[in-house]
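Re: weekly structure request thread

Next one in the queue (339 aa):
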Amino acid sequence: MAPVPTIRMVAELAGVSTATVSRTLSGAGTVGARTRDKVERAVAATGFVRNAQARAFRNRSSRSVILLVRDIGNPFYLELYKGVEEAAVDAGYKVLMGDARDDDVRITHYVDMVRERHADGLILMVGRFPAPLLRRPDLLPPIVVALETLGGLQVPTVRIDNVAAARDATEHLLALGHRRIAHIMGPMPDGLSTDRLRGYQAALEARGVGFDPALVSPGDFSLAAGRAAIRGLAAAGTVFTAMFAASDQMAVGAIAELRLRGRLVPDDVSVVGFDDIVLADALEPPLTTIHQPRQEIGHRAMALMIARLDGLPAPPADLVMPTHLVVRRSTAPLSGSVK
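Done, posted below.
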């Protein structure tokens, strides 16, 4: 039987110290390009990374998974957590929740927590993933992505079709007669935000309505971003009769700022959000929005993770969950007085 590859074998083959091998594989410290190349060649020749990593994950289990989200204070994640936690408890796992804030240092910290066996896997609901980690996918722990689009990360994913959903939201406003439709984006160049902008543009194009960049405002999915968008549009003197916000929180912020400025929803401005958060139907007026099945998405994401951790066949999967428009009282036909 061939000996089990060790870090010492890699070091001897590469002609470096075991400490240098460790730094190279972990991404910690500075390692020259030539040395890194020698270590990576030795790793490939010995099969050390593949075998050692597989052995560690088989033999040392914490029975816990980290759910890493963009903003732990956003109520959007409550239903997602419920779905993840429900599936986890059924399988004997516990769920830890982390706040990424879309910060590379924080995301790397949580990846390292799993590498160090404080948890068995990582469910990502973040808008970015550190480039240095993408360069060594063979060193990544078990990961499942939920809702987000993270280019270059080939792992199981549960998501929605953001382009189609955003198009549905915008088409609803167009069908009500609106043509001057503002859009508050999510953070750019985030893939999710880009897709929602594309859906907005596609709906306008399909109706022969020209795209006006002046109607598009930057955002970050927060209440404050919704308020800021209205202030910016007002300062620029931009005329609009409807608005599609890329998140419910931004829609709520926009409605609050419109009210401060004496503009009523939907009498003066129709507003559509995205997410269908728990409070969407308790607002005044209740918010028209895109519903996504967050609890089921969380449940599916955890099911994929359990399959990976239990050693079941789990090739990269791309599950697309359905969405639908929920029409409430924040939208209305274009009034002659605001055309």
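The longest strand covers residues 64-69. Residues 162-292+325-338 form a domain with the Rossmann fold fold (CATH 3.40.50.2300).
Next request, please.
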